Amino acid sequence: MLDRLTSTMQSRGSPCADSTGIRPWNGGCSDMHLPVIRRKGLSVRFIETFDPQSYADTAISLTAAFLLATLIGAERQYRQRTAGLRTNVLVSIGAATFVDLAMRIEGSEGAVRVIAYVVSGIGFLGAGVIMKEGMNVRGLNTAATLWCSAAVGSCAGADMVAEAALLTLFVMIGNTLLRPLANAINRTPFNEMASEAHYEVRVICPSAEIPQTRDLLAEFLEDHKYSAASIDERKGPNDTGELVAQLVSTAVNPQEMDQMMEELLTRSGVLHAGWEVSTRD
Q1: Does residue 195 contact residue 279 with C-beta atoms inside 8 Å?
Q2: Domains of the chain
Q3: Spatial distance between the Cα atoms of 177 and 241, rounded to a whole number of angstroms
């Protein structure tokens, strides 16, 4: 527009134009008025680009993510978990917002990339609620629930509200109805012969006899067809040492192991011998 105006002034030979053909701003030719070019403000741009239909779609997505995550978070809050009501809701609506924003700007391809980032980002958030206390690991279910809340939000942000509701239903079933079943399984006696686990043989001996006892333990296990993947040495009290042999086998006969420990106690230099089982991964 400015180029057309300049060329017009030059063609008319306007006395108000300088050598470049542009009218000076400091006076003269009051009968001519050039339009003032202003940059559009944020409010003007918002009014021009505002789409009520898209806004309603976003509102539905965020509302669905909020309500569905509230159901998941309420159950977590009731059980006093680390990630409770507010955390699950914030994760869900945040994921929904990012996915909805990507779909409005770049379409489905952009949404796919954002969903991939959401999945990896929730992994870091979930790692923060996992804690190890001795042999026990806490927070795995909480981290998995946060991951599912992000999935619920992503579905809602992608306008898949029905799928988000279905996922919420499955998450609620997993955290509530499956709990009695998990408790019943945990109360079932552990069968060493039918279950895979990690087995350790522990031997206590005088510190001065650790090398000889280590060789003795390795040969003893080999003779009984239980090879050791590793044998670690640890310091014990009163000038004693402990040898911990990690067995290669993932299933043993408990009666046979008890007899082996009794036999091992009869060997020279062995002060104590025992074995234990662990189901940790």
Answers
A1: yes
A2: 52-177 (no CATH), 195-278 (3.30.70.260)
A3: 48
